Amino acid sequence: MSLSSVQIRIGLPHMKTFAYFLTILAAALLFLSGTVTSAKAEVIDIDKQKLFDFPSTDEDVGLTLLKLAKVRDPEFAKLVVRTETYKTMAPEMRAGFLQTETPRLAGKYATINPQEEGVLIRLGVKVYFKDGLQDNPPILTIQFPSSGLIYFPYFYAGIPIAVIPNGIENFTTIVLSEDERNIVNATLDPSPEATLVLSLKPVGADIKSPMMLDGEKQLPLLCEISYIGVHNRNTDQVWAWGSDTYKVNGRKTPMIEIVRPEKGAPF
Question: Which of 54, 176, 252, 261 can pair with 180 through a Cys bridge, CB separation 3.0 to 4.6 Å?
Answer without folding.
Answer: 176
